[in-house]
Amino acid sequence: MTQPTMIRGEHLPTALSLAASGVPVLPLRAGKVPFGNCPRCADNACGGRPNMKNPGPCTCLAPCHGWAAATTDPDVLISRVWGRAWRESAAVAYHPGGAGLTVVDLDNTDAIAWADANLPATQVVRTTRGEHWIYRGTMPSANAVRPGVDVKSLMSYARWLGTGTGTLTTLPEVVRALVVREPAPIRPAAVTASAPAGGGRCPHRSPAFLERGIAMAEQRIAQAASAVHATVFSAFLAVLSTHGRCGCLTEAHTARLFAAAQAKGESPRHCADAWANALHRLGM
Asked: Rounded CA gap, 53 and 140, in Å?
């Protein structure tokens, strides 16, 4: 395959090399932003911005629509339509999710220190102000998940800055948990549930029944291989839905549940938030 001289750009060889390895790429203009919509796609004339649920009716071959324009097709990359973009490009970007990757974008030294203390080692690429920690696996993208930390994977793009150092490792649960969204916590005065109004008698006040429920919740949390934060929340919700309104639960029981969650890497704050969110979900 030949590359027409008229569309050559200094970033095109890098883009073609990445595409050949299965990494979807697109050009960035000055300011590290994608090229805007072409006249055909301006003002959503093409039917709207493509997204993961609705790729959209747009069949434009220009580098429109940001991350959704990323491609591994060499014929598209060297086409006349993309030629001007490559000649004017300031950098190459890629769609991490399209390559089966997640980028943890650490924007300053404090964010890097947090990663050093909490994330497993993986491939690391230096950026202008910080580092990109790259993991194998995909997840929803989100900005500002922590101070100075963005997550770029599905429906996002990252600037290509080289291969960096280190060995690519599997996306850890601690990163997935950063983008878990639950109802805003309403913190109770204590973590124990109150008895029902009117002093109603517990319909199942059996030590064996309660013990079995707590043990099952502990086992469910301990066996979680992924989505630990969501598993903890659902386990807390199950216990509270059965025993939360009758006065069965004691601080000793909640301490056991919190201990099981913390053994899987949850922080005390996450435990308290999950418990409060479960109470809120049940209207307690």
From this structure: 13
Q: State residue 210's pLDDT score.
A: 77
Lowest mean pLDDT among 125-129, 232-236, 239-243, 256-260: 239-243
Q: What is the C-alpha to C-alpha distance for residues 224 and 229, in angstroms, rounded to an integer?
A: 9
Compute the distance between CA of residue 179 and CA of residue 141 in angstroms, rounded to an integer: 8
Q: Residue holding tokens 């435990």?
A: 271
Nearest to 117 by CA among 278, 6, 265: 265
User: Cβ distance 18 to 29 under 8 Å?
Assistant: no
- The average confidence (pLDDT) of the chain is 81
Q: What is the pLDDT of residues 130-188, one digit of tens each?
A: 999 999 999 988 898 899 999 999 889 999 999 999 999 999 999 988 887 554 443 44
Encoded tokens for 283: 């209207």
Rounded CA-CA distance 77/75 in Å is 5
Could you tell me which residues come within 8 angstroms of residue 192 by beta carbon, excluding any fewer than 6 positions away?
A: 249, 250, 251, 254
Question: Do residues 58 and 46 touch, judged by C-beta distance below 8 A?
Answer: yes
In the prediction, which pLDDT does 9 show?
A: 65
Identify the pLDDT of residue 179: 84
Distance CA 69, CA 122 (A): 28
Residue 105 has φ and ψ, to the nearest 5°, of -90, 110
86-89 — which CB contacts under 8 Å span 24+ positions?
Answer: 86/7, 86/8, 86/9, 86/11, 86/12, 86/15, 86/27, 87/7, 87/8, 87/9, 88/9, 88/27, 88/29, 89/9, 89/11, 89/27, 89/28, 89/29
Q: CB atoms < 10 A from the CB of 74, how many?
A: 14
pTM: 0.61
